[in-house]
Amino acid sequence: MGMFDEIRCEVPLPDGAAMADVWFQTKSFPAPCLQRYVITHSGRLLDSVGHDLEADGYVTFYITDGSPHSWREYRARFRDGQLLAIVIVAGDERGGAVRYGLASFRWFAAPSFMFGDVDGE
Q1: pLDDT, average across residues 100-109
Q2: What's the confidence (pLDDT) of residue 116?
Q3: Could you tell me which of 34, 36, 65, 58 has the C-alpha nearest to residue 48?
Q4: Are the CB atoms for 36 and 8 separated by under 8 Å?
Q5: pTM of the prediction?
Q6: Cβ density class 44-59: b for 16+ within 10 Å, e for less
Q7: FRET partner for 115 with CA separation of 20 to 30 A, picked from 5, 25, 71, 97?
Q8: Class of residue 119 by CB neighbours under 10 A (exposed 0-12, middle 13-18, buried 19+)
């Protein structure tokens, strides 16, 4: 199993799921390394210490409890740092010919949620 990051979404999801306190997994960032991100109520993408990443492009995030049919996957689109939309990723879109990803974002050294890093260490 490869590395991943986690993301929390404070914006309502398109299927009406209330998951503002849930950490989803994502592999949308280059070299996922157990970082945490938040899509805020105002539609900004922040890292774990509050830096605005000013993202352009797409962030895909997902969750499952391991049971059949529990997979939920979403794709958030950002332009000039602002969230434009979140859509549900349908099963037939996974692994398709079209690839979605981040075109650009600001990068900061943020602590890992797995290893309990503290800023400055």
Answers
A1: 78
A2: 60
A3: 36
A4: yes
A5: 0.81
A6: bbbbbeeeebebeebb
A7: 71
A8: exposed
